[in-house]
Amino acid sequence: MNEQSNNQILNVTVRAEFAGSRLDKFLTESFAEHSRSRIKTLIVDGYITRAGAKVTDPSRRVKPGEGYEITVPATKSAIPVGQNIDIDVVYEDDDLIIIDKPAGLVVHPAPGNPDNTLVNALIAHCGESLSGIGGEARPGIVHRLDKDTSGLIVAAKNDIAHRGLAAQFSDHSLDRAYKAVVWGVPKSKSGEIEGNIGRNPRNRKKMAIVKRGGKHALTHYKVEKRIGLDNVYWASLIECRLETGRTHQIRVHMTSMGHPIIGDPIYGSKNAKKSKNDVSIVFQNTVKTLNRQALHAYLIGFYHPTSGEKISFKSPLPRDILALLEA
C-alpha cells in the first residue's frame, strides 16, 4: 500500500480459499475498512485494475494468483455549502419545499458535479433547517430527477417530513406523472411496460431491462398527441405514470418499446427512425436545438407528512418541449 496524489492505492492477490468468489465480495473481505457498496461503486467507476486493465464487473469470479489494485480517491468534504442559485419554488411550508427544476440542474453533489446543484441552492434558500436531513451529502433530498429532466421535485426540511415522504416513495403510494416526446407512435394508445431494470451488462454506465437480477419496474403510458403532417406521424407526446421509481425507468422502458425519448443522449437519438423525408424540416431543426431529453415531471401528489392532507401539484411543459409540439 502506498500514497499517490492523495489517492490511496491498495494491492491484493487472490488466495486459494477465495477461488470462485465474486470480485466485490473478495475485495470487501480483504479490506474490511470499506463497505461492500463502496467497493461496488469503486469497481463500476473504474477504480479497480488487474494487470493494468480496468475491471468494472462486481460479479466477476476471481482466480487464485490474480492480483488486483484498488485506487481509493482522496476523500472530500461531504457537506455541501449554500450557493445563491435561482430556483422556482412551487410550494413551501415548515416541513417541505417543492421546486420546479429546470433541465441542466443536477440534484445533489456527485463526482463531476461537486457544487452548483439543487442541494446547494436549497441550503442557501432554507438555511440551517435543512442541514443533515437525509444525509450530509444530500440534505433534504427524498427522490431525484436526472440532470436533463425538468419538472417537480420535493425536498424535506426536517426529519419527520423526510421519513414520511420517504415511506410514500418506498411503498409507491405517491402520484407521479411525466410527459415525454418520443420518436414514433406506439401501436396501443395506452398500456403498461414492465421489466426488471438493472445495469446494462455491456455498458455499466447505462441501465437496461435485464433477464436476471435488476429491480422490478412498471410504467403506465398513454398517447396524448401524435405529431406529424398529412397523416404521417413521426413523434408523439406520451404521459407516463410510475408505479416504481428506478434509475432511468421511463427512458429505458420507452426505448424498449422502440420509441426512445427525443434528445436522449444515452438511450435515444436525435435522428428519427424513419427516413428524414418523413419528418418535416421544421421539426428536424427544432430537435437540433433541443439540448436534453424531452422529459418533464409534470405532476406530483402525496399525503402531507405532518397534516395528512392529500396535496397535488402540476407543472406546465417548458418552452423547449412545447416547441416540439408546435413545430
Structural notes for this entry:
The chain is of the alpha+beta class and 327 residues long. It contains 7 helices and 16 strands. The chain has 3 domains: 2-72, Structural Genomics Hypothetical 15.5 Kd Protein In mrcA-pckA Intergenic Region, Chain A (Roll), CATH 3.10.290.10; 89-170, Pseudouridine synthase, CATH 3.30.2350; 175-326, Pseudouridine synthase. The protein has helices at 23-30, 36-44, 118-126, 159-170, 249-256, 281-289, 319-326, and strands spanning 2-4, 7-13, 48-50, 53-54, 67-72, 89-92, 96-101, 150-156, 175-183, 190-194, 197-200, 203-209, 218-229, 232-242, 295-303, 310-314. Strands 6, 7, 8, 9, 10, 13, 14, 15 and 16 form a 9-stranded mixed sheet that branches. A 5-stranded antiparallel sheet has the order 1-2-5-3-4. It has a two-stranded antiparallel sheet with strand order 11-12.
What's this model, at a glance?
This protein has 327 residues and is of the alpha+beta class. It has seven helices and 16 strands. It folds into three domains: 2-72, RNA-binding S4 domain (Structural Genomics Hypothetical 15.5 Kd Protein In mrcA-pckA Intergenic Region, Chain A); 89-170, 2-Layer Sandwich (Pseudouridine synthase); 175-326, Pseudouridine synthase.
